[in-house]
Amino acid sequence: MGILLKNLWHFFVALLANLYYRFPSRRLIIIGVTGTDGKTTTSAIIHHLLTDSGNRSALVATTGAIISGRGQPVGLHVTTPSPFLMQKLISRAVKAHCRYLVLECSSHGLAQYRLWGTRFSVAVVTNVTHDHLDYHKTYIRYLTAKSKLFERVSFAVLNKDDRSYPFLSQKLSHLKSNIVTYSLHQPADFNLDNYSFKTKLPGDYNRYNCLAAAAAVSVLGIKPAAVKKALASFPGVIGRMEEIDEGQSFRAVVDFAATPNALENALKTLRSQMNQPGRLIAVFGSAGLRDVQKRKMMGQVAARFADISILTAEDPRTEDVNNIIDQIAGGFSKSKSKYYKFPDRQEAIHYAINNLAKKGDIVAFFGKAHEKSMCIGKVEYPWDERLAVRLALRNLLKQNNAHSDKSEHI
Fold it and tell me: How many domains does the chain have?
């Protein structure tokens, strides 16, 4: 009964928001992107493809909203904003004379009616893997929440290689949607055999993101030549495989990867870029009051693909960060892979850079990326992962220079 009342309340708020802003989505062509991993990058690529081809486009994603070239936050730890902020942003896009709007859509946002009343023309799914089962309880319920995005769209862009494909394609067979598929490994409307392109983004998972984006804009009439040109120029997204370079002798990479699937893809990609005898060092945690099942899975992934792991805080909230770390460490029980425990994330970053990293290594920091706060207890403390890594690197170089100067005077 409690859940039913909450859902009725969510629906009522969404209805009021749409009435207040007069259903602004009806004056735009809206592309919705959902999935477990890759939503932010795919949404950003679609926005880039549209703007690069001369179209006025707005974007609302995890990293923030971009309307008329101006960025603004959407909230802490939020992908899909509350109904009133969501409709306000859509209304702003209309007033900015945008033709297109790209919306990153979370399962929570879909389940809680935050997107109710928003009229989508195209819906895209990246993948649906293990995440948010603390809220949805089962994979099928999680997938069902995602599928709400596809109920009234003109075009549905589906990943033929993903386990979500049979469910979504069957569900959509009863609707009027045109299904467009993409794949890396089998025949599809968009694959590497019939749609070759160049991209600066690393890894197969980004090839999926690029194909999904290309499919989405192609059904809107954007010409292949314009799409491929824009794919080649897309610079990437803040906090997604972002290199932090202060002149150190090893690579430092900041990435969001907060699910087992995302962490595995990121580590595999980094591993493929390594030169021997370099080591891959992973620094990560798992959020408190969120999906507990994935913690051990994250540990298992790191044990397989990283040489050294440092387990640390990632928004522990009211949970004991040491308990969370111990649950992640359970994934290392059958592995000889080395790991360290540092409940303080700043100490974890410092230790990885100043005590472990050597020439030729890759040190990767996962889970915080673009976010601007760390939730400890019930307080949001300021946190900037990219700055924290940069400061640790500068400290290392300062110490190295001081040591070099001291040696010269001996």
Answer: 2
pLDDT tens-digit profile of 52-97?
A: 999 999 999 999 999 988 888 777 677 788 999 999 999 999 999 9
**Would you say residue 98 lies in a domain?**
yes
Bin 360: left if φ > 0, else alpha if -120 < ψ < 50, else beta.
left
Residue entry with tokens 């990560």: 284
Contact 270, 253 (CB under 8 A): yes
Confidence at residue 404, expressed as pLDDT on a 0 to 100 scale: 62
Pairwise CA distance, residues 84 & 189, whole Å: 37
User: Are 53 and 153 in the same domain?
Assistant: yes
Q: At what angle do helices 39-52 and 224-233 cross, to 10 degrees?
A: 120
Write the CB contacts of 154 (distance below 8 Å, at least 6 apart in sequence): 121, 122, 176, 177, 178, 219
State whether 28 and 108 are in the same domain: yes
Q: Binning pLDDT at 50, 70 and 90, where does residue 373 land?
A: very high
Domain limits at 388? Answer: 242-399
Q: Are both 271 and 293 inside the same structural domain? A: yes
Q: Are residues 201 and 95 in the same domain?
A: yes
Last residue of a domain, which of 233, 262, 285? 233
Tell which of 200, 233, 266 closes a domain.
Answer: 233
The model carries a pTM of: 0.93
Strands (E), 18-77: 29-34, 57-61, 64-67, 70-72
Which pLDDT band holds residue 252 (cuts at 50, 70, 90)?
Answer: very high
Residues in the chain: 410
Question: Taking a C-beta distance cutoff of 8 angstroms, is the pair 143, 170 a contact?
Answer: no
